[in-house]
Automatic annotation (TrEMBL):
Residues 10-204 form the E3 ubiquitin-protein ligase synoviolin-like TPR repeats domain. Keywords: Membrane, Metal-binding, Transferase, Transmembrane, Transmembrane helix, Zinc, Zinc-finger. The keyword Transferase applies. It comes from Cyclophora tenuis (Marine diatom). Pathway: Protein modification; protein ubiquitination. It holds the Pfam family TPR_SYVN1_N. This is E3 ubiquitin-protein ligase synoviolin-like TPR repeats domain-containing protein. It comes from the Eukaryota. One of its GO terms (biological process) is proteasome-mediated ubiquitin-dependent protein catabolic process. GO terms for molecular function: ubiquitin protein ligase activity; zinc ion binding. GO terms for cellular component: endomembrane system.
Length: 205
């Protein structure tokens, strides 16, 4: 029997990036100058929505790229657990942000998305570490000559180790940035972000 070929589907990430590129092209085409185009992008509500959506899509792409390259993708259990983690923990962070609602701006939104990305990556690493610890040996002896019997670190463990070190490094940068901002500008929403980053750093160490 004849089967119709599968039609190529545009993913959410591709559609979001395409909409952002189309918006920038429209701004440049209609305003004719870079400055006027930037004014339009900075004042239009639709521009905020489209570019903000593209930023969310970018962070989703970063998450998928890191988990695919370093962890070999997510297991089904990890995907389901991540959905539950996202539902409850991100809601708590959003509620905490309401205490600083007078300080919410674009920069705060970007930092908030980075915090969400960091939380999701930390949770995935913790779940994968628990799975690997229970199901695999960290070090195996080599079977090929001339290094037969020498200890060998598995590739899955190596990717997990690299991911963990990257997260620790980013957590340290986040804590330092928040502390410097608080010292220079006083108490602000950075206190919340710094506290969250410090918690992630402790859990990753």
């Amino acid at each position: 029997s004849y089967q119709q070929p599968n039609k190529a589907r545009i993913s959410y990430i591709q559609a979001s990036f395409g909409a952002a590129v189309a918006l920038v092209w429209y701004a440049l085409r209609t305003r004719q100058q870079w400055y006027l185009a930037l004014v339009f992008l900075g004042s239009s509500k639709w521009a905020y929505i489209i570019l903000g959506n593209a930023l969310i899509a970018f962070f989703i792409w970063v998450f998928r790229f890191l988990t695919r390259r370093l962890l070999g993708g997510l297991r089904l259990v990890e995907s389901e657990g991540l959905a539950d983690f996202f539902r409850w923990n991100i809601t708590d962070t959003c509620l905490a942000l309401t205490m600083f609602r007078s300080e919410l701006d674009v920069q705060c939104g970007v930092v908030f998305l980075m915090l969400i990305l960091g939380k999701c990556l930390h949770w995935v690493v913790e779940a994968r570490e628990s799975h690997v610890r229970m199901t695999q040996d960290a070090i195996l002896p080599r079977q090929n000559e001339p290094f037969r019997g020498w200890p060998m670190l598995q590739s899955s463990h190596l990717g997990l180790l690299v991911m963990l070190q990257v997260l620790v490094f980013l957590d340290i940068l986040a804590v330092v940035y928040c502390v410097q901002d608080i010292v220079n500008n006083g108490m602000s929403v950075q206190l919340l972000f710094g506290f969250e980053a410090a918690i992630l750093l402790v859990t990753a160490m």
